[in-house]
Write a structure and sequence with these properties.
heterodimer, A: alpha/beta, Rossmann fold, Elongation Factor Tu (Ef-tu), domain 3, 8 helices, globular, B: alpha/beta, Aspartate Aminotransferase, domain 1, Aspartate Aminotransferase, domain 2, 2 domains, 13 helices
Chain lengths: ~375, ~400
């Protein structure tokens, strides 16, 4: 145990690091160890490719290879490593919700629920059981705590920033969170990993939704609910409500999508609306994709409600650059109004509020209020 | 930090005498036992001497011993080999629901190959009733496989009686003796079984070696094909050093049996008594009497076994919840479920398996660490309300 200059024992804080076996979470553990924390590595077993009936992609999450990589890293760092089975919780909180969302004609982002309920839910419970004060992951974002409280910030490397996916962390859980990776660029992290001799230092980044191999999310839906209405054919309407064709199932579409409905028109057509009630999709021109107002549900704030500024920066997709607008809180929901119309506001995706680099909160996009286009 | 290993049913350290006996066979006496020249003959002689030692200690014939890579291979060989070699007589196998995966997964394989498999019930003490076996036997039954002692609970089956029932019906009997060998005195001739599996690393021998006893005249299909090693029953250059280690480990186990048994009995009893005094709401799983002396399986009400194991590991104490598994599965133990242990308690079970390295002092230390850990985990457990429900 380290001592202060006066010879008093300094209590080291114990931190539980969620480790996928990838380079970022490995370095997260290494950095924390270097900083003097009492570090425990944990790999969350969230699903089994064999049970999902999929061939695991190379380096796929939760495979035995990646679990072993995490274990090897911990062994090298001289810290304990455990694997905990959260398959059931992941199934209930993430996969089921993912399918429900598609079934409701939405386009979900399952990482949000995974972070909210699994990493900052179940993993935090495990932290309690193991006597850990803190939890950490390999996310590119930062948590800063000072007299004014705890703040979630974008990563220093804005090209890798993952703060968008972290808005759902409960504030109480954020207070117990460290994200050491957010202070570095990806290149720096890889360089550090090489210096540590980690064999995953140069492994390519994972891109897709972890439990959806090859991006084929319809296969996941079909496998669990093969008769789901979202996979049955339905009509294609134009913006005036005329039926102009048939599609193979609305789950295959998202707002703003340009391909896949097999209609040749003079101008490019985009999906502007998905209506699960009559299984229809509506297509229109690019102009019809723009809207200003939408409602949000499942709000989570990382500030006190009264601290919410009149105007904030709002991101409506992981890759969205952000746009200025106003948020009006209403209980667990909110109404959002962009200053200018934004393209393809998509129900099921998250809207995240920023003040500069600080994440203020977010919610799930529920409904576009304003009729798109004119 | 003090490290205390209480997981001897998973594996044991190699006994120094075993290591010493093995060492020459990695270097100076490196010969291939199949070679005709002097270094081959030297290896062959050592191998056969070891086989004779094993046979003497286990009370069977030399020719009835086939050396394998360990318990899992022996189990696979016995179950699949006997079932396939006798399939012209019938395609029905009887087993129990508490077997090691080496047996249960082999039985599932047989099912996929068109065999029928019957799983006998076990009672709340974890014991198979010979009458249940009698009832399950069919004209097309060719093999019964029931473990000698269970790896999770340590509960011992009445193999002699089960063998008698099987033999009355002319059915072969296999037992997985991986968890009894070296822990309780037995002889193969007395048990009467036709097939018996042993693994060296559970009795202070090396990993990667074991044996299968195959009674003379027992029909069994060979799986490892190649050279004529082991009388054509298991091809592959013999692991001479490993076999020497196995025979030495058996010799030491036989030599020290009485002393070790007394010590382990007193340690486990003391541990359980101390635990009962310090920690309320615990229960022992499986028979306390018909049990190998080193194993205690205890449920802590309101606490997940997994949380206990991890917390104790962080305090330097190694225990486990069942079979060693690193892939993170946390289903309730199939053994405890088969015994009718309620789900919550089955999830809250921890296996303590003592061994040579443990001392009476360890016990006090473990109880001192364990009692407050249980209390701490119960304090944060939504499942635990004091005293019972």
């Amino acid at each position: 145990m380290p001592r202060s200059l006066r010879g008093i024992f300094i209590m080291t804080q114990r931190v539980l690091v969620g480790m996928s076996g990838g380079v970022d979470s490995s370095m997260s553990a290494a950095l924390l160890k270097e900083q003097g924390y009492d570090v425990i590595g944990i790999t969350l077993k969230l699903y089994d490719y064999a049970e999902l009936n999929f061939e695991p992609p190379d380096g796929g999450c939760c495979t035995i290879d990646l679990i072993n990589d995490a274990r090897l890293v911990c062994d090298r760092l001289g810290i304990p490593h455990y694997v905990i089975d959260l398959k059931r919780a992941f199934e209930q909180n993430v996969i089921e919700n993912f399918i429900d969302s598609y079934s409701q004609g939405r386009t979900p982002n399952p990482c949000i629920n995974c972070n909210r309920f699994i990493k900052w839910g179940e993993m935090l419970k495990t932290a309690d059981k193991l006597g850990c004060d803190l939890v950490a992951t390999g996310h590119y974002a930062r948590v800063i705590e000072d007299k004014s409280g705890v703040r979630l910030l974008k990563a220093v490397d804005t090209s890798k920033d993952q703060s968008y996916a972290l808005w759902g962390i409960p504030l109480e859980a954020l207070k117990r969170t460290i994200l050491p990776i957010g202070n570095f660029t990806k290149a720096e992290i890889r360089e550090k990993a090489r210096k540590c001799g980690f064999r995953n230092a140069d492994r390519p980044d994972s891109q897709e939704i972890c439990f959806v191999p090859a991006g084929d999310y319809a296969a996941i839906i079909a496998q669990r609910r093969k008769d789901d209405r979202s996979l049955q054919p339905g009509p294609i309407y134009d913006v005036r409500g005329h039926e102009i064709g048939e599609h193979r199932g609305y789950a295959y579409f998202t707002i703003g999508q340009r391909k896949g409905f097999g209609i040749a028109e003079g101008v490019p057509l985009y999906v502007t609306r998905i209506n699960p009630d009559d299984r229809s999709i509506t297509v229109g021109t690019r102009d019809h994709l723009f809207a200003r107002r939408f409602s949000l549900s499942d709000i989570n704030l990382l500030i006190k409600p009264e601290e919410l500024p009149d105007e904030v920066e709002i991101k409506i997709r992981y890759r969205h650059g952000g746009a200025r607008g106003r948020v009006e809180l209403m209980g667990k929901g909110a109404m959002v109004m962009f200053d200018r119309p934004e393209r393809a506001i998509t129900p099921g995706q998250s809207a995240v509020f920023y003040d500069g680099e600080r994440v203020l909160g977010g919610g799930i996009i529920d409904q576009i209020i304003e009729t798109p286009g004119k | 930090m003090r490290n205390i290993y209480l997981d001897h049913n998973a594996t044991t350290p190699v006994h120094p005498e075993v290591l010493e006996a093995m060492l020459p066979y990695f270097s100076r006496k490196f010969g291939n036992a199949s070679s005709m020249h002097c270094s081959g003959r030297e290896a062959k002689a050592a191998l056969e001497d070891a086989r004779a030692d094993c046979a003497r200690i286990l009370e069977c014939k030399d020719s009835e011993i086939v050396f394998t890579s360990g318990g899992t291979e022996s189990d696979n060989y016995a179950v699949k080999g006997a079932a396939f070699a006798n399939r012209h007589r019938g395609k029905h196998v009887i087993t129990s629901p508490i077997e090691h995966h080496a047996i249960s997964v082999s039985c599932e394989f047989l099912q996929k190959e068109g065999f029928g498999v019957t799983y006998l019930p076990v009672d709340s003490q974890g014991i198979v009733d010979p009458d249940e076996l009698r009832k399950a036997l069919r004209p097309d039954t060719t093999l019964v496989t029931i473990m000698h002692a269970n790896n999770e609970t340590g509960v011992i089956q009445d193999i002699r009686e089960l063998v008698r029932v099987s033999h009355e019906a002319g059915v072969l009997f296999h037992t997985d003796a991986v968890q009894t060998t070296g822990k309780i005195p037995y002889s193969i001739s007395e048990l009467g079984c036709d097939l018996l599996s042993i693994s060296a690393h559970k009795l202070y021998g090396p990993k990667g070696v074991g044996l299968l006893f195959i009674k003379s005249g027992t029909k069994i299909q060979t799986w490892n094909q190649g050279g004529g090693h082991e009388r054509g029953r298991r091809a592959g250059t013999e692991n001479v050093a490993g076999v020497i280690g196995l025979s030495k480990a058996l010799e030491i186990a036989a030599r020290d049996m009485e002393k070790e048994t007394t010590k382990l009995n007193s340690m486990t009893n003391r541990f359980y008594q101390m635990l009962k005094e310090r920690v309320p709401d615990i229960r022992i799983n499986g028979s306390l009497e018909k049990r190998v002396p080193n194993t205690l399986n205890i449920s802590f009400r309101g606490v997940e076994g997994e949380a206990m194991i991890l917390s104790l590991d962080l305090k330097g104490i190694s225990v486990s919840s069942g079979s060693a598994c690193t892939s993170g599965a946390t289903n309730a133990s199939h053994v405890l479920v088969a015994m009718g242990v309620p789900g919550e308690l089955a999830h809250g079970s921890v296996r303590f398996s003592f061994g040579r390295s443990n001392s009476e002092e360890d016990i006090e230390y473990v109880v001192d660490v364990l009692a407050p850990e249980v209390q701490r985990l119960r304090n944060i457990s939504p499942l635990y309300t004091k005293s019972g429900n």
